[in-house]
Design a protein that fits this description.
By secondary structure, the protein is α+β, with helices and mostly antiparallel strands. It has 2 domains: about 10-65, Arc Repressor Mutant, subunit A (Orthogonal Bundle), CATH 1.10.10; about 75-245, GAF domain (Beta-Lactamase), CATH 3.30.450.40. About 45% of the residues lie in helices and about 20% in strands. A 6-stranded antiparallel β-sheet has the order 6-5-4-9-8-7, sandwiched between helices. Strands 1-3-2 form a 3-stranded antiparallel β-sheet. Helix 2 (about 30-35) packs across helix 3 (about 40-50) and helix 4 (about 70-90) packs across helix 9. The longest helix is centred in the C-terminal third of the chain and has 25 residues, at about 225-245. The protein starts with 7 loop residues before the first helix and ends in a 9-residue tail after the last helix.
Length: about 260
């Protein structure tokens, strides 16, 4: 099978897989020959990977895996750690176990669900791991976005503000900014029917040891039960988030 039409990203992964599988570091010529790739494109990809420290070159012009891969591995391990902590620690909170509770991360302006504790009663919305929704409409997304500057948020949505899913969805940066300001004061975000009409979600963020919001959690209700349970659930949700943060090494700054 010819690789002439393989996109640059596919070629990049082929090169990285070859370096990873090889018991010895490889030269550019060896890589190009082994993968039947043009030397010019092989050279260009290798230079890009070198610049990002994904690989490095020794004194004999042979290529090895680089230190940047540790950054990716660390992020993956951290993400998996959050999932396990969520699953373990939520069991300590009976009030949360009565509801659907989700864990998600922020990815390119969208929320990606990582894990979910399902409520006994269905909500009519799928929170399956891997499902993506626009962050500006979800409780976890709003919570995580509240930790960023508006300039950063606008750059995330440089191609345009997401189209609302329901008539209740926020549809501009000014209204979003107002919502995010309220979250900064309370640490609690609200999806008031913006993902699904009749479903309300309360959310908060989870910070790592560096103080960055790496995940969000949300509790979902039917609209009719939201008002009566909002205060108690909000307090417990923040307590769970702080427990997870503590396990991740985050240390809150206490004012004197």
């Amino acid at each position: 099978m010819s690789t002439a039409a393989v996109p640059a990203l596919d070629k990049t992964f082929q090169i990285l897989d070859l370096i990873t599988d090889s018991s010895q570091p490889l030269t550019a010529a060896h890589i190009a020959k082994a993968l039947d790739l043009p030397r010019s494109s092989t050279h260009n990809i290798l230079q890009s990977l070198l610049a990002k420290h994904v690989i490095y070159k020794d004194s004999d012009n042979r290529f090895h895996l680089g230190s940047y891969l540790m950054y990716w591995a660390g992020k993956y391990e951290q993400q998996q750690g959050v999932i396990q902590l969520f699953k373990d620690l939520i069991m300590q909170y009976p009030i949360l176990l009565q509801h659907t509770v989700t864990l998600s991360k922020l990815d390119l302006g969208e929320v990606v669900f990582l894990a979910c504790h399902e409520a006994p009663a269905p909500l009519g919305f799928t929170f399956r791991a891997g499902v993506r929704v626009p962050a500006v409409f979800s409780a976890t997304g709003k919570a995580m976005l509240s930790t960023l500057s508006m300039d950063s948020i606008q750059s995330i949505y440089a191609s345009g503000f997401p189209k609302p899913i329901t008539p209740h969805g926020v549809d501009n940066f000014t209204d979003l900014s107002t919502e995010l300001s309220a979250i900064k004061d309370s640490r609690i975000s609200l999806d008031d029917g913006q993902l699904r009409e009749g479903m309300y979600c309360l959310g908060t963020y989870i910070r790592n040891a560096s103080g960055h919001a790496i995940a969000g959690m949300a509790v979902s209700f039917l609209q009719a039960e939201y008002e009566s349970k909002r205060a108690d659930v909000s307090a417990v949700l923040i307590e769970l988030a702080e427990q997870i943060e503590q396990r991740l090494g985050f240390k809150a700054k206490h004012s004197a």
